[in-house]
Amino acid sequence: MGKMLIIDDDIEACETIESLISRLSHLCDKAHSIAAGRKMLAENGYDVVFLDVGLPDGSGLEMLSEIMKIEDAPEVIILTGKGDADGAELAIKGGVWDYLLKPSSVREITLTLNRALKYRAEKEIKDERENLVYRPVVGTSQGIEASLRLTQKAAGSDVNVLITGETGTGKELFARTIHENSRRAKKKFVVVDCASLPASLVESTLFGHVKGAFTGAQKDTLGLVKIADGGTLFLDEIGEMPLSLQKVFLRVLQEHCFRPVGGSHEDTSDFRLIAATNRDLDAMVDKGRFRSDLFFRIKTMRIRLPALRHRLEDIVPLLNSRMTHLCDQYGLAKKELADDFITTLTSYSWPGNVRELFNILERSMVDAGDEKTLFAVHLSRELRIQVAKSQIEKMTGREILAGDDDMFNNEGVRKIGQKIFEDIFDRELPHLKEFKNTAEKIYLSELMRQCGGELPEILQKSGLSRSHFYALLKKYGLNL
Fold first, then answer.
1. Region(s) of the chain under CATH 3.40.50.300
2. Parallel, antiparallel or unpaired: strands 27-31 and 161-164
3. Which CATH superfamily is domain 142-306 in?
4. In this predicted structure, what is the pLDDT of residue 162?
């Protein structure tokens, strides 16, 4: 007997599903809002949650991450009356069991519920046997948890895996996590950087060569494919692999046989393949720049890693984890993270993702020296300026382009003011206090940008006292 929770403000839909669940001899609770559903989830354990998308106090999709973080999280079945394709995609990426359109037939709801319960029962048996013993990945965001669930599945099998994500998202770290939790963990994890393979030595590097195969080949040498025998072959940046090599490697992947350069006999290698790329391989296949047969072969299981800007809640845990490593490495004392330091980092766009975050942290710790706390001032001026520009863009609605220097001289500030006045004449006038606050906030943001965050210059230019300046920062939620 299972226990279900229906979170839906449609009373008729709730009663229909509740009646069906009762006939199947399961227990059922109901909630008609996110707040009520959140309270029930905190107080009870459930096997399945029916979650409506449109609720009076928010979107059910926004509640997904909370549900997924629950220990032994229930299976989630999304309900919607709109048939929103984008909502369906977001829900599935978030780890839901299924997506039902209202009204759904009794048969459809029954089949979906029974499948979810069967899957949950089998998963519980499997979870008793499996767990990621080696888990160096830091973070609890919905995206990372979804990636880790796939990582655990990949570690328990021997299928080919394709890991995709932007530069710096941790593709090699996830590949190592799969290897270290697999049956091949005691064998080698061999990394091949496809972007740096020398064109003249590609086949020799991968497949090895025999003595005398070419000038300088003074002895038989094993290639990386053979070295990975029994272990894992990790092809990093596989999107950079030349088309000529893709054809050769496809056969190696299919047959696990290869011929060393200059050799007369084929050799074998029992490797497990994990590939990674920051390129859009689907688009490359469409353009004929990547072989479709190789693409389908390497993506038996696909793990998409989220960009750091989509998992900002993981920034503090990542900083603390990396700081512990740096302190051990350099013999430094661990530092506190000031609110303005964290706020600035969570306002940044992170084009370099986690790798960039770690580099920035290391630079900030060096800059802070013996100081016990990391403040925003310990971040580079370039980063703080970029965050300030982003804040101004949000407040003014104008995109600031590289080299758009006039935006930040006196004429530029005047144009910002003109823009504010133009806007208020196109709509109902705001209260004078609201207008003054908007203008004051824009002035402070631009003041800090022009002065590069240097407090003495800020006070001199503005004529503000130190206490008044800090009071204004607090008032508008700004950081120096």
1. 142-306
2. unpaired
3. P-loop containing nucleotide triphosphate hydrolases (3.40.50.300)
4. 97
Phi, psi of 100 (to 5 degrees): -110, 140
Position 299 scores a pLDDT of: 93
CATH code, residues 312-476: 1.10.8.60
Cα separation, 343 vs 400, whole angstroms = 21
pLDDT at position 414, please? 45
The residue type found at 311 is R
Residue 122 structure tokens: 């089998």
Consecutive 10-residue runs of the chain (480 residues): their mean pLDDT? 88 88 89 91 90 85 81 84 59 71 83 87 60 86 88 92 96 97 95 86 89 83 94 96 91 93 91 96 95 95 95 95 91 89 92 96 91 91 83 57 46 48 50 76 82 85 86 81
CATH 1.10.8.60 boundaries in the chain: 312-476
Work out whether strand 336-337 and strand 373-374 pair parallel, antiparallel, or are unpaired.
Answer: parallel
Q: Which CATH architecture has domain 3-128?
A: 3-Layer(aba) Sandwich (3.40)
Q: What is the pLDDT of residue 409?
A: 46
Are 306 and 144 in contact by the 8 Å Cβ rule? The answer is: yes
